[in-house]
From TrEMBL:
PROSITE patterns: NUDIX. Its EC number is 3.6.1.-. The gene is nudJ. This is Phosphatase NudJ. Signal peptide: none annotated. Monomer. Belongs to the Nudix hydrolase family. NudJ subfamily. It is an enzyme of class 3 (hydrolase). The keyword Aminoacyl-tRNA synthetase does not apply. InterPro entries: NUDIX_hydrolase-like_dom_sf (IPR015797), NUDIX_hydrolase_dom (IPR000086), NudJ (IPR033713). Its cofactor is Mg(2+). It comes from Paraburkholderia acidiphila. GO terms for molecular function: nucleoside diphosphate phosphatase activity; ribonucleoside triphosphate phosphatase activity; thiamine diphosphate phosphatase activity. Residues 7-137 form the Nudix hydrolase domain. Keywords: Hydrolase, Magnesium.
Amino acid sequence: MNEQTWAPHVTVAAIVERDGRFLLVEEHTPAGLRLNQPAGHLEAGETLHEAVVRETLEETAYAFTPAALVGVYMTHFGKPGESGATYVRFTYCGSVAAGPENRALDPDIVRTVWMSADELRAASERHRTPLVMRCVDDYLTGKRVPLDFIQTHATAPKAAPRMN
């Protein structure tokens, strides 16, 4: 693997529980129709907080308000001896507005669904990755880190030229 070109993919995901049910998306993937939390990639210039709010809105049409970080997860997909792809996932929990906004969902999203943890566990063959259930289980055991644990530092402005 060429270490100069390798970089992990940074993703975010949202855990939303309402009345014992979790907000999920059913989405088209290369492996077929799968279940996942609202999730996606960090984009240039945005914070992790902004990314999870944006991704949740784009995939579910719900306005998401993060309350805490549930965990940071790293996973690698690929065959032994190949570089594959490494993902670092920041999973947040929080709440959504009472109802979805009137907007189209991302093209790969078929629909949103609300499932109990038991229903989700019973559908494990349809999970996008093993992280789907792992993140819910961590949430259910009470894992939480305050939002201010993640610090975003703005790029320092260029120094003004010195006048001598």
